[in-house]
Amino acid sequence: xxxxxxxxxxxxxxxxxxxxxxxxxxxxxxxxxxxxxxxxxxxxxxxxxxxxxxxxxxxxxxxxxxxxxxxxxxxxxxxxxxxxxxxxxxxxxxxxxxxxxxxxxxxxxxxxxxxxxxxxxxxxxxxxxxxxxxxxxxxxxxxxxxxxxxxxxxxxxxxxxxxxxxxxxxxxxxxxxxxxxxxxxxxxxxxxxxxxxxxxxxxxxxxxxxxxxxxxxxxxxxxxxxxxxxxxxxxxxxxxxxxxxxxxxxxxxxxxxxxxx
Length: 261
Known about the structure:
The protein is an all-alpha fold. The protein is 80% helix and 0% strand. It has one domain: MFS general substrate transporter like domains (Growth Hormone, Chain: A, Up-down Bundle), CATH 1.20.1250.20. α2 packs across α4 (115-129), α2 (24-82) crosses α5 (132-143) and α3 runs antiparallel to α7 (181-200). The longest helix has 59 residues, at 24-82. The chain is globular. Mean pLDDT is 80; it is low at 225-261.
């Protein structure tokens, strides 16, 4: 029985991948995620090489801080803005920005330009990358036709995430062995732009979104909201909470020796 469990897990994984491959929109969305995060990991490795050559281990740590700190600050500010548009358009924009920033870094390195420009482009790419995963997670349910496809899509993306964590650094290592950092940046940029091209081919009906809630000052200024309390008071009615409080305040636990009022 124990020997059959690994085989059963493999069968489930194969079935999940098969269901995603048969759905053209899901297939493109999942491949775009694989391309985007493979590019991210390859870019991270190459950027570490650049920073180490520039200033040693201290520079590597500072570059990591410069990438993460703006992302942590900008993510809460950018997420509501990104939530207003269609998910695939947000993902396409993010992939194009990342691809352009990475390609710019490749050009700077190839021309032996200032390393500070490479760091600035890396920060821009990382800030844009913070929107990719949540937007992709919100997109998947719109592409699924059944509950099984949705469950399979989540599992497949988790596997692709792990695969990108392995493939990205491995790809960077192979390229660095035979070429240089500029080529790694160029390949990462191509992977990001490939992800954008896949997302541009999505065809689906976006679900309707509920209207945004009205601001508090608009609610307070509306005639209906100001007239409602007056009508309630004119009828002598009280809210359920006030009626419950008036009744419950008359009775207290008998174990404390208090009597009803």
